[in-house]
From TrEMBL:
PROSITE patterns in the cross-refs: ACT, PREPHENATE_DEHYDR_1, PREPHENATE_DEHYDR_3
Residue stretches making up the ACT domain: 205-282
Sample GO molecular function, one term: prephenate dehydratase activity
UniProt domain Prephenate dehydratase: residue ranges: 15-190
Signal peptide: none
Source organism (scientific name): Hypericibacter adhaerens
Source species, domain of life: Bacteria
GO biological-process terms attached to the record: L-phenylalanine biosynthetic process
Record-linked CDD domains: ACT_CM-PDT, PBP2_Ct-PDT_like
Protein name as catalogued: prephenate dehydratase
EC class name: lyase
Length: 293
């Protein structure tokens, strides 16, 4: 089934795009959040965005940050110019498996392959077993390569789904350093959504640049404090080669149409060069559980 949007792009409603190969954690997240949708693997994040813009997929599943390894590289630079809107969020518990070809054991493996974030999330086991770490573009790609080689001295850190897809054996599961290891994803689409605040908590995500004047950030954020608006995430990154211009990514509780949020955003705009709303969407049930809701 396809759907024609306001932009005239027709896309299959049951297809969601992600970066990586089949079996990647983004693939797993797509299946967990949208079990009735098919998944579309893409080589890069730019390809994921393009798939949705061009009508090859209805939605995009994009990782933002991990509770252990932090921000996903490049994402904050790509989001503002993606041409898409954040329409939802999803939190995926990451349960890493040490995968290897049949015949391999914990004693035979010498090298472990995976995405840099997965490797950093499993430092304790890698050090414990004295393994050499090798970085790959993604976890599923590492699993696919290990399966193709069939070398019992090499293993991969990836999901159980990747193990099933590529015929690998799990030598050990739950190998992540922290039990809270969770990745936050945002789901993006061509058209924005406008959730009803009365139906439940709402998150607003946006980027902004502060003016190059003393205490500009302090003044820009003052409106959120005086209006009682909770900032749940604030992160800065440089956007020019001179290290003089910083852009900030922020998540706040509330809808832009609510009086307090509107006043806070107005004050932010007064002290900022540019404010761009990336999405207004319903808060994930996971977020509410963590807050005791």
């Amino acid at each position: 089934m396809s759907k024609t949007t306001k932009r005239g792009v027709t896309a299959p409603e049951d297809l969601i795009a992600f970066q990586g190969l089949p079996g990647a954690y983004s693939d797993l997240s797509c299946r967990a959040a949208y079990p009735k949708m098919r998944t579309l693997p893409c080589a890069s994040f730019e390809d994921v965005f393009a798939a949705v813009r061009e009508g090859k997929a209805h939605l995009a599943m994009i990782p933002i940050e991990n509770s252990v390894a932090g921000r996903v590289a490049d994402i904050h630079h790509l989001l503002p110019d993606s041409g898409l809107h954040i329409v939802a969020e999803h939190f995926q518990r990451v349960n890493h498996h040490l995968l290897a070809p049949k015949g391999a054991t914990l004693e035979t493996i010498k090298t472990v392959h995976s995405h840099v974030q997965a490797l950093s999330q499993c430092r304790k086991l890698i050090r414990e077993l004295g393994l050499k770490a090798a970085v790959h573009a993604d976890t599923a790609g590492a699993a696919a390569d290990i399966a193709k080689k069939g070398d019992i001295t090499e293993a991969a850190i990836a999901s159980s789904l990747a193990g099933e897809i590529y015929g690998l054996v799990s030598l050990k599961e739950g190998i992540e350093d922290a039990e809270h290891n969770t990745t936050r994803f945002v789901i993006m689409g061509r058209e924005p959504v406008d959730p009803d605040p009365k139906a439940g908590p709402v998150v607003t995500s946006f980027v902004f640049r502060v003016r190059s004047v003393p205490a500009a950030l302090y003044k820009a954020l003052g409106g959120f404090a005086t209006n009682g608006v909770n900032i749940t995430k604030l992160e800065s990154y440089m956007i020019d080669g001179h290290f003089t211009v910083a852009q900030f990514y922020a998540d706040i509780d509330g809808h832009p149409d609510s009086r307090m949020v509107r006043l806070a955003l107005e004050e932010l705009s007064f002290f900022s060069r540019e404010v761009k709303i990336l999405g207004v969407y319903a808060a994930s049930p996971f977020r509410l559980q963590q807050n005791g809701g």
